[in-house]
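Records of this kind hold a single protein each, on a pair of labelled lines. Below, a sample record shows both lines together.
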Amino acid sequence: MSGEAYLTHPLEVANILAELKLDVVSITAGLLHDVIEDTLMSPEELRRQFGDEVFQIVDGVTRYPRFNCLATTEASR
């Protein structure tokens, strides 16, 4: 496995959010939405480095089962 999906998927998400003209916080959260699950970064470190607002979005997406299901479906395509 090359790890390409770990880069292309968040970039695609961020691109979609940018095309929807969402704010910087939302686009940043889109880029980072899998970081807590897929890396060694702790939730506390994410909050420290990117702020509470980005952390709350990422944490919410991580905890919400429907988003995880959609992400799994997208990743398998």
User: Anything to note?
Assistant: The first helix runs from residue 4 to 19. The chain has a mean pLDDT of 85. The chain has six helices and no strands.
